[in-house]
Amino acid sequence: MEQPWVSVIIPTFNRHAMVSELIESLNRQTYRRLHIILVNDAGLPLNFISEDYPELDITLVDLETNLKHVHARNRGLELVQDDYIMLCDDDDLLLPTHVETMMRAIADADLVYSDVEIFDYVLEGATRRATKRFVFAYDSDLAAMRRFSTFVASGCLFRKEILEKLIRFDADMHHYWDWDFYLRAAEHYRVKRVPVASALYAFSEQGDNMSGSHEDMRPYLDRLSAKHGLGELPTKNFFVLLEEPEVQQRKAATEVLWDGAPIVSRYALSAGKGKAEEEEAGARGRSGEPL
Asked: Do 113 and 77 form a contact (C-beta atoms < 8 A)?
């Protein structure tokens, strides 16, 4: 029996080095039948991605206006023709067996998601090297998920028929679009956590992906709460929330796969080669040799 195809939706905006690492991680997948839909949210050109990875099936969508990540994901959904859909953030990574594992897990479910390793990093050239990492693995009790979501959308896999009810991701939720997606899916479909940390979730202590302004996030959290009847929810710092007793009690066992090695993309290799050639040319110039 032929393996089904999976559409992988990636919204991106001016993160050439990071999205190249993600594409490299997709190229290393043991499950090969991937249609990659790369939605460029009015950022700098990304044509080099297809040139770097001609063996991959990549559809590049260039948005004329920067609509932000939720709208970009919805644009990707419009192009899906496969029975299975996977979501990825442009700065996250998937370990080689991730898609294969998710495809096995979805046999008795409609939406599956994995545990992750969260990592901080330094950038060396065009490659990220992890400086800190920790496992993020929690049980998926629905009542607890209504208090604090541990659903990580990057690397999640779902059946296309989910879209018959959910249709689109809700841009009005903005920061909390993924929590909203999980709660809507769990209401109507079979949702399953897969206890393997096969996705790598990037963050930087200098960035804003986990510690944005609480004042900016509050209106969206209030919208989410009103939509799902969640009551009053805190907007504490992510890491503070992880130390809350009720969250600590939800910690679960998982399989850890990552050896901590960086994923070096072809973009990084070509950038490094270019730098080496420049340095070599400079050295020849300093030694009096003709350039």
From this structure: no
Per the DSSP assignment, residues forming a β-bridge with 223 are: none
- Among 59, 61, 60, 64, which Cα is nearest to 42's? 64
The three-class DSSP label of residue 153 is coil
d(Cα 37, Cα 61) in Å, to the nearest integer? 7
Amino acid at 73: R
Measured CA to CA, the distance from residue 47 to residue 62 in angstroms comes to: 10
Cα gap 211→241, rounded to integer Å = 11
Q: What is the pTM of this model?
A: 0.91
Mind listing the pLDDT tens digit for each residue in 199-248? 999 987 655 454 455 668 899 999 999 999 999 998 878 888 899 999 99
Nearest to 60 by CA among 76, 78, 42, 39: 39
Residue 174 backbone zone (phi > 0: left; psi -120 to 50: alpha; other: beta): left
* Whole-angstrom distance, CA of residue 291 vs CA of residue 289: 6
Q: Using only the alpha carbons of the chain, give its radius of gyration.
A: 20
d(CA 193, CA 67): 30
Q: How far apart are the first and last CA of the chain?
A: 58
Burial class (CB in 10 A: 0-12, 13-18, 19+), 288: exposed
Single-letter amino acid, residue 126: A
Q: Compute the distance between CA of residue 286 and CA of residue 291 in angstroms, rounded to an integer.
A: 10
pLDDT in tens, 140-189: 999 999 999 999 999 999 999 999 899 999 999 999 999 999 999 999 99
